[in-house]
Amino acid sequence: MSFDQRIQFDGHDLSPYMLVTDIKRQVVPKRRITQTQVPGMDGALVSSVELDAIEVTVSGCITRRLMSEVTEARKALSACLMSADPAPLVLPDDPTTYLMALYEGGAELSKPAYIPDVELVFLCADPVAYGQRRSVEVSGTKRVRVGGSYPARPVVTVKPPKGSQWQITNVGTGEYVRVLASFTGSQTLVLDMGLERCTVNGTDHAVDITSDFFSIAGDASLMVSGGTATVEWDERWL
Description:
By secondary structure, this protein is mainly β. The protein contains 1 helix and 17 strands. The protein folds into 2 domains: 120 residues, Elongation Factor Tu (Ef-tu), domain 3; 108 residues, Sandwich (Jelly Rolls).
């Protein structure tokens, strides 16, 4: 397998130093399946399914011949790979998406000169890739095409009209988030479904106890109780 597209990590283009020849990644991340035993019932019920972290192995070669040139390329690669936090990794086999990854370290060159081979291993604690950024305005009820192949967690921003509460509902699932407050029509309410966080004018605010922070997938129908909400999310791809 060979590629001539770019590999990027943490905003750095690695292709001036490294030619990618192979990428190994799982078809689907390993699934953690939790089972619940029910008295009097054969077998068990599946109570939850979660995805494990994944490793992505990128094989290639340093595109230099002289030992001094290889050394300089190795140092440049090292500087590009040293992020202490998960950073976007764009791979040549799927350049329209990115994974949030950490370089695990420990790679060794196969030889000190003349186009040495190298293998980089990245850990993706979040195993689902990110794709196109999407945004939609929702007033009343609106059907939304989410995109991707995995549920996304949106961020909702709205100036609720005057009243004592505001609510957004995922009509298809019945899940909703309700916020109780003395709204005047001027406050900015932000709901982050991924972080399960609510703020009013930048200050943390509790949601109603019956609320469920929800994800959206496929063709979702969203309903707001008033005003116009901006709903933003990144496509998620397995």
